[in-house]
TrEMBL record:
InterPro entries in alphabetical order: NADH_UbQ_OxRdtase_chain4L/K, NUOK/Mnh_C1-like
Gene: fpoK
UniProtKB keywords: Membrane, Oxidoreductase, Transmembrane, Transmembrane helix, Transport
Residues spanning the membrane: 12-30, 37-56, 68-91
Gene Ontology BP terms: ATP synthesis coupled electron transport
Similarity remark: Belongs to the complex I subunit 4L family.
Location relative to the cell: Membrane
Protein's UniProt name: F(420)H(2) dehydrogenase subunit K
Membrane topology: Multi-pass membrane protein
Source species: Halalkalicoccus paucihalophilus
Gene3D superfamilies documented for this protein: 1.10.287.3510
PANTHER family listed in its UniProt record: NADH-UBIQUINONE OXIDOREDUCTASE CHAIN 4L (PTHR11434:SF16), NADH-UBIQUINONE OXIDOREDUCTASE SUBUNIT ND4L (PTHR11434)
Molecular-function annotations in GO: Methanosarcina-phenazine hydrogenase activity; oxidoreductase activity, acting on NAD(P)H
GO cellular component, one term: NADH dehydrogenase complex
Length: 107
């Protein structure tokens, strides 16, 4: 069995992968108007954080990062449940899920 310091894949590769996934998610958040694509982009950003947690957990040889990743996944599931409800309300009121139309909901 390999020691935690003798990883087959270096941690830097995980960090590069995580940075790439996070940048794709950030690009999606900043450029999309569709609320569903917005939620998917936020999920990508949360998954990038999970990759970091698990990579550093593997490097240091403890389970703390994996535990935090499980909590982030639970948070993501709750976010999706709330987000789908908001999307349904947007669609019901505006017949579309464009997030820029929601500014007309102000009184």
């Amino acid at each position: 069995m390999l020691a935690p310091t003798q990883l087959l894949v270096p941690v830097e590769w995980y960090l590069v992968l995580s940075a790439g996934v996070f940048c794709i998610g950030l690009f999606g958040v900043l450029t999309r108007r569709n609320a569903l694509m917005f939620l998917i982009s936020v999920e990508l950003m949360l998954n990038a954080a999970n990759i970091n947690f698990v990579a550093f957990s593997l490097q240091w040889g403890n389970l703390t990062g994996q535990t935090f990743a499980l909590f982030v996944m639970a948070l993501a599931a709750a976010e999706v449940a709330i987000g789908i409800g908001i999307i349904l309300v947007l669609y019901r009121n505006f017949r579309g899920i464009d997030v820029t139309e929601a500014t007309t909901m102000r009184w």
